[in-house]
Amino acid sequence: MSKFMLIGGGEVGRGHTNYETKEIDKEIVKMVEKPKANFLFVGLASNFSDSYYDTMKKIYQDLGCQCAYLKKKNIINNPDIVKNKIETADIIYFCGGDTIKLIEDIKKYNLLPLLDKAIKNNTVIAGMSAGAIILCNKGYSDSLKLRGESEHYKFIKGFSFIPISICPHYEKGGQKAKELETAIKKTEEKIISLENGVALKIQDQKINIIKSNPNRYAYLCYNKNGVYQEKNLEKEIKNNDK
């Protein structure tokens, strides 16, 4: 049984930002199905992982969790501690940031076997934005834009733990949506696009939409006979369940 939460984006209250993922975080803890879960924050994607963790620690402690932090310093200096943290975690949370950096570090430090084992042991695997992309076949990312290597969003290949492709930080009618439409017409792929404050809960291969903001949505985007389609995924799931 595998348990995933793919979060499209949203502020977590770090600094002076709003807290936009409350209902999603609560659902992540519920997925563990035990009184006091062990929450492990993986900060490899972020350049501000310390303050990011401080914020997430407060959130998940308030939700009844015991919290731990995995950063590059741990991985380099003490592999045994890393192994223990991952094996004892009930929730592994990959934060947002640079998708390419996160993928490179996971490969470089040989974390994939530990992650694969955690998934098979029913650990809840949650990812925000870049952290969500790495769990899928691929994701529509701004990593190359942030690095100054492209002026456009690009698909980045993930580790394919989940056989879908996603677009986080989607905004209907926005620039990213316009570029995605062009990209989909070239690739003929189906993409699940998530607005901030929206997440995909995938448990036992069943997909549900979890929303912290009722006015934000998930979309299924694809090309049908040369015409771009953007459908409300929540409605599509309900229609398929009938």
Walkthrough of the structure:
- This protein is of the alpha/beta class.
- 37% of the residues lie in helices and 29% in strands.
- Strand 10 and strand 11 (206-211) form a beta hairpin.
Short description:
With 242 residues, the chain is α/β, with parallel strands linked by helices. It has helices at residues 22-32, 49-62, 72-77, 79-88, 99-108, 112-120, 130-133, 143-146, 175-187, 233-241; strands at 3-7, 38-42, 66-70, 91-94, 124-128, 136-141, 154-157, 162-167, 191-194, 198-203, 206-211, 218-224, 227-232.
Keywords:
single chain; 242 residues; alpha/beta; Rossmann fold; 7-stranded mixed sheet; 6-stranded mixed sheet; 37% helix
Shape: globular
Total helix count? 10
Strand content is 25-35%
Query: Residue share in helices?
Result: 25-40%
The computed structural class is: alpha/beta
Tell me, rounded to a whole number, the average pLDDT. Answer: 93
Distance between the termini: 24 Å
CATH topology: Rossmann fold
Biggest sheet record: 7 strands, mixed
Tell me the radius of gyration: 17 Å
In the CATH hierarchy, what is the class?
A: Alpha Beta
CATH architecture, by name, is: 3-Layer(aba) Sandwich
Q: What is the count of β-strands? A: 13
Major beta sheet, strand line-up: 3-2-4-5-1-10-11
Q: What is the H/E string? A: EHEHEHHEHHEHEHEEHEEEEEH
Write the layout of secondary structure elements.
Elements: E1 3-7, H1 22-32, E2 38-42, H2 49-62, E3 66-70, H3 72-77, H4 79-88, E4 91-94, H5 99-108, H6 112-120, E5 124-128, H7 130-133, E6 136-141, H8 143-146, E7 154-157, E8 162-167, H9 175-187, E9 191-194, E10 198-203, E11 206-211, E12 218-224, E13 227-232, H10 233-241
Parallel strand pairs: 1-5, 2-3, 2-4, 4-5, 6-8, 8-9
Antiparallel strand pairs: 1-10, 6-7, 9-12, 10-11, 12-13
